[in-house]
Specification:
The protein is mostly beta strands. The termini are far apart.
Length: 199
Amino acid sequence: MKTLFLIITSIFFTSFALENNIGKYEYQSTNFRESIELLKNQTFVYECSLPFSNYQIKGSYYLIGDSLILNSSPQKDKIIVREQNSGKFENKVFKITDKKGQLLTFHLYITLNDNSVIFFRDCFEKIKFKSKPIKSFHIINTIGLKSPEYVLEGKSTNCFEVQFENIRVFDNEKWHLIENKIQPKGFDGKAQNYFLIKK
């Protein structure tokens, strides 16, 4: 009986929290606007406006305490990597496009097996270089969208064809919800120093 009471109480407070937080939250500055609308059916509409791009993402959400957990729908891979071996092992080649095969400008961060980091800025299409064995890498595009850290599967691969999702993907991303405002995370996955305010 006590267990049933706790379950009913939990459902009640969860429903109350969801109902209380439904609405549109927004932040706007001179060249940037970001908003998220939380709907009754536990779906959301996220919008972002930058100087040269605007996009909308839909998905689902749920609450855990003061955390807002977001998932895009349909869910997408943030990065797809095809590893190959070609030529001398020390010669490394990275070819990077978006999911549509279009070329893009990117920054490449490479972690070697000795944990040292190599950084290449403002690369376009393909980059070739010599290095010691690579442990992992990640990509950041020109608007600051960061890929997950990709850990190499092969020990002798030196050529990498990478498809990068050039639009933000929410994958169990946790934002902080405080009364009538939300602290979002940026494209790099770090908490921002501004809040989306409920309208």
